[in-house]
Write a structure and sequence with these properties.
Keywords: Pyridoxal phosphate. The protein has about 375 residues and is α/β, with parallel strands linked by helices. The chain contains 13 helices and twelve strands. Bound molecules: pyridoxal-5'-phosphate. Pyridoxal-5'-phosphate binds next to helix 3.
């Protein structure tokens, strides 16, 4: 089955008992056992048919051994980090999700894990960060908000040489655009609250594992910790995933149109978009991804007020989050990345006036008209 067919028919896509073409929402906490220990499902924390359907589906979409659904992306990330023990050292990409840094700095360090933060585009810096206690490399690509691209294959090759796990947060790309497990990663994580859910109506997280050994460990932790996705949410997520292909095509087409438009605007000083031939990582993005995604960040020329610009938009919604049908815009320094100290933000290249746009699937002419209107008002 090809990818767009898998989205609809992959995993468990229908109900064997009734023939319903959509998997029912099994609202049950426990299941009858015909004999002690003889039951397909025992208790819904350990396994639920609706959750299992979406877990099987994501495993297939990411070409992994098994999938696991969690109550949020953050729950998925937290559970994966419990693979490690006090004293273990993990290398982390310098541009990962703010909530991941919060978890690392305020929770995981307290439990004795140690971390080195590096720019994972710099392979020698990654090599140099490895020590005797290193157990894993954790990164995102494309990153947020500057859409930097890490060479997944190069990093997983280094990880294998040193017997480290490689873990990729694939939220910004989705499996439509890139499949890290095919490029050597051991574990893929998603905030399914973004492109996979796709409709701004769901908080969910997913983990996909490459080998049965890791699947067994994550399955154990999922049940032990219990931060599982509930049946209603599992159903909603599977429904969202069915249209991932259609949505990603529309998202990417619109992103390309908006990039072409922004390039012409004299008020725009710099555009961060992997499909920008002037983007530092353009060649790698072209090689590693199918399309360039639909996230664009840009800076206005000095003297233009970025906050006034985003507040002047009428259709494009001023909000955090991304990967939704509706276009969402924000100022990372004031919103998603506001918790990072300014000096560190600036060091990472996130300027105060940087604007991040998650391009939705509206008619592109309406989006361009909205941008034009907002530009006209700041002149
Ligand atoms: C949103 C996000 C998360 C956190 O996911 P939640 O579902 O909000 O808990 C993790 N990683 C990335 C890249 C994200 O964008």
């Amino acid at each position: 089955m090809k990818f767009n067919t898998q989205l609809i028919h992959g995993g468990i896509s229908s109900d064997v008992t009734t023939g319903a073409v959509s998997v029912p929402i099994y609202m049950a906490s426990t299941f009858k056992q015909t004999k002690i220990g003889q039951a397909k499902y025992e208790y819904s924390r350990s396994g639920n048919p609706t959750r299992e359907a979406v877990e099987k589906l994501i495993a297939q979409l990411e070409n992994g051994d098994a999938g696991f659904a969690f109550a949020s992306g953050s729950a998925a990330i937290s559970t994966v980090f419990t693979l490690f023990s006090s004293g273990d050292h993990i290398i982390v990409g310098n541009d990962v999700y703010g909530g991941t840094f919060r978890l690392i700095d305020n929770v995981l360090k307290r439990m004795g894990l140690t971390f080195t933060v590096v720019d994972t585009r710099d392979l020698s810096a990654v090599q140099a960060a490895i020590n005797d206690h290193t157990v894993a490399i954790y990164f995102e690509t494309p990153t947020n908000p500057l859409l930097r691209i890490t060479d997944i294959n190069a990093i997983t090759t280094i990880a294998k040489q040193h017997h480290l796990l490689s873990i990729v947060d694939n939220t910004f790309a989705s499996p439509y655009i890139q499949k890290p497990l095919n490029l050597g990663a051991d574990i893929v994580i998603h905030s399914a609250s973004k492109y996979l859910g796709g409709h701004s109506d769901l908080i969910a997280g997913l983990v996909v594992t490459k080998t049965a050994t890791i699947s067994q460990k994550i399955g154990y932790l999922q049940n032990a910790i219990g931060a599982i996705l509930a049946p209603q949410e599992s159903w909603l997520l599977q429904r969202g995933i069915k249209t991932l292909g259609l949505r990603m095509q529309a998202h990417q087409n619109n992103a390309q149109s908006i990039f072409n438009y922004l390039k012409q605007r004299p008020e725009v000083a710099h555009i961060y978009y992997p499909g920008n031939p002037e983007h530092a990582d353009y060649a790698l993005a072209k090689q590693q991804m199918v399309g360039f995604g639909a996230m664009i960040a840009f800076e206005l020329q000095p003297g233009y007020d970025a906050e006034a610009f985003v507040e002047n938009l009428q259709l494009i919604t001023l909000a955090e989050s991304l990967g939704a049908l509706e276009s969402l815009i924000e100022i990372p320094a004031k919103m998603t990345h506001g918790a990072i100290p300014r000096a560190i933000r600036l060091e990472n290249g996130i300027r105060d006036e940087l604007i991040r746009l998650s391009v939705g699937v509206e008619d592109s002419s309406d989006l361009l008209a909205d941008l034009t209107h907002a530009f006209d008002q700041i002149i």
